[in-house]
Amino acid sequence: MVTTHTYVYRVASNCEIQADVYRLPGDGRRPAILWLHGGALIFGDRRTLAPEQLERYLHAGYTVVSADYRLAPEVKLPAIIEALQDAYRWLRAQGPGLLHIDPERIAVIGHSAGGYLALTAGSCLRPRPKALVSFYGYGDIAGTWYSRPDPFYCQQPAVPKEEADQAIGDRVLTGTPFEGHPFLERYRLYLYCRQQGLWPKAVTGHDPDEEPEWFTPFCPLRSVTKEYPPTLLVHGDQDTDVPFEQSVLMSEELECHGVEHRLIAMAGRGHGFDGEGMKDPTVAGVFEQVLAFLDRT
Questions:
Q1: Residue 285, pLDDT score
Q2: Three-class SS of residue 170?
């Protein structure tokens, strides 16, 4: 019987930032997974963790903590990174007593923008997590793939600036579902940013062409050292949202610094390939490899 508890791990900008903790019965301390949702840092929330994936992690012996974070553009990237740091500190502090987890055995896993945050965790969290898993994440947020109009998204009808602006509110958001009206508004904002090459500026408030050095601490690709945690990269080679090259470049950088890592290239697969579920034997096989990596590291 899985138990689920929702906790407030920080109050900021007059809003409560929450995390859902999933665990199986028993008082023994278990290793933990800090799970971070995708959504371009603009939409998405902690409840988008796929049930089949959650079940795999739980039955492999992990407690899973799915955390929200404040969303851009109402807040900017430094505040999002602060939320990641706060969630990790809270997890380590509350782990032994409240959550029955081992604070010295925490992995960070994320998908898409959550994959970016997982890779960022390798340099911004102390002590460093024991392992990182990035599903179709990215290590460079200032590159031309994000800071120029995207050819794939430009094939779709242009989103007017006025419509994109309507999706930006006065209050800070800590999550939007991947369905319904709020999601559609936020997704249209994201689509506008990709069509105009404005995502880095919208999310950070800085222009990568004018202030390239500002982005350095926020680009995992530029922040790898030999102390970086063991890292697993999983990416479809037909990804039209986050280029497969982003994981290739990250893998090469990890190799240069002698960091334990592996890149699983999903041939013929696109963004969010794991959404097809465990009935797809290829997807199920990937999660077996993820669990083997976590067990080893």
A1: 97
A2: coil
Is 276's pLDDT higher than 90?
Answer: no
Degrees, nearest 5: CA angle 261-22-91: 65
Residue indicated by tokens 């900021």: 12
Strands 231-236 and 261-266: parallel
Query: Would you say 118 and 44 are in contact if contact means Cβ atoms under 8 Å apart?
Result: no
Query: Is the pLDDT score of 183 beyond 80?
Result: yes
Give the Cβ contact number of residue 148 at 10 Å: 13
Domains for the chain: give ranges and CATH numbers: 3-142+215-296 (3.40.50.1820)
Q: Report the side by side order of strands in the sheet with 131-135.
A: 3-12, 15-23, 63-67, 30-36, 101-111, 131-135, 231-236, 261-266
Across 22-36, 60-74, 83-97, 165-179, least confident range: 165-179
Distance of alpha carbon 146 from the chain centroid: 16
Q: Which residue stretches of the chain are H helix? A: 51-59, 77-94, 113-124, 144-147, 161-166, 180-196, 199-204, 245-256, 281-296
